[in-house]
Specification:
Structural class: mainly alpha
Radius of gyration: 38 Å
Low-confidence stretches: 1-10, 270-287
Number of strands: 0
Largest sheet: none
Length: 287
């Protein structure tokens, strides 16, 4: 009887243990299911958020791309710029020149001089940006003078201001004698003056002795002027022949982007002129 009782008790204990284990397993399964549900819900939420973001971007692009396609954005920008040009002509031209010249020098350093972004010479960019303001101011004043000369030498005939007369005048095209005079005056008179001011400004900005700047100017003036003719004779022919007077300075500044890269590459940093002359004198003395 005692052995039977002991066996029954043992069987009951085993059954209880098995039941407890089963209950624990069920609880663990439920916890795992809950955790999986939380993870699944979070993943679903993230996926839904990503889909919503992509949908918003796609919707924005869908609304914006047609504007780009039909040049609406460009027209809006040009309309704003034209308005500023009409209200604040000199200031707008000066800011335009500063931005264009600064960008051109930065482009030169990165694209043609293998300068890393972190090593860009910001002082040199600043120098060209300031020069852009001066250039826009000088060129605006020069065009006013040149327009006065042209109007005196090539006066426009007095005709009826009608639509028909305007169409006839437009069909006749530019006055090429007037255009030739303006291009010649621009390149023979203004171009050397421009380079004198450009080299002088560079020497002042770099705090060089005037003697060095003058020596450098004498050496570089003729190559600088004659090199510029290859760019500016055709560019100014287009300007004086086809560009409306209020837009000539902005046209000139836009064309200056490429030319300013040439300026930056050739005359961005003034070499030590005095040292060069000393070396030449030593060589002459040795001979």
């Amino acid at each position: 009887p005692v052995a039977a009782s002991t066996a029954a008790a043992a069987t009951t204990a085993v059954a209880s243990t098995a039941a407890a284990a089963t209950s624990a397993a069920s609880a663990a399964g439920a916890a795992a299911s809950t955790a999986a549900g939380v993870v699944t819900t979070a993943a679903a939420g993230s996926a839904a958020k990503a889909v919503a973001t992509k949908a918003a971007v796609a919707s924005g692009l869908a609304a914006y791309l047609p504007k780009i396609g039909n040049l609406t954005v460009a027209k809006e920008i040009w309309s704003t710029y034209s308005g500023l040009l009409g209200l604040y002509p000199l200031a707008t031209k000066s800011v335009t020149g500063s931005v264009i010249y600064g960008l051109s020098d930065g482009t030169t350093q990165v694209a043609f001089e293998d300068v890393k972004a972190g090593d860009i010479d910001s002082g040199r960019i600043r120098r060209f940006a300031i020069w852009g303001c001066l250039d826009a101011f000088m060129t605006t004043q020069w065009y006013n003078v040149l327009d006065g000369w042209s109007d005196n030498l090539f006066p426009e005939p007095v005709t009826d201001v009608t639509a028909a007369a305007a169409e006839v005048a437009e069909a006749a095209g530019p006055n090429w004698a007037k255009v030739a005079f303006e291009v010649a005056a621009d390149q023979v008179i203004y171009c050397p003056v421009w380079f004198i001011v450009f080299f002088t400004y560079g020497g002042i900005y770099e705090k060089r002795p005037f003697g060095e700047t003058l020596a450098y100017m004498k050496r570089e003036m003729v190559p600088a002027v004659t090199t510029s003719w290859w760019v500016w004779v055709p560019a100014m022919t287009i300007s004086f022949g086809f560009i409306p007077t209020p837009l000539r300075v902005p046209y000139y500044l836009v064309m200056s982007f490429g030319y300013a890269i040439l300026l930056s590459a050739m005359w961005g940093e003034v070499p030590d002129v005095g040292a060069g002359e000393s070396a030449e004198e030593e060589e002459a003395a040795a001979e």
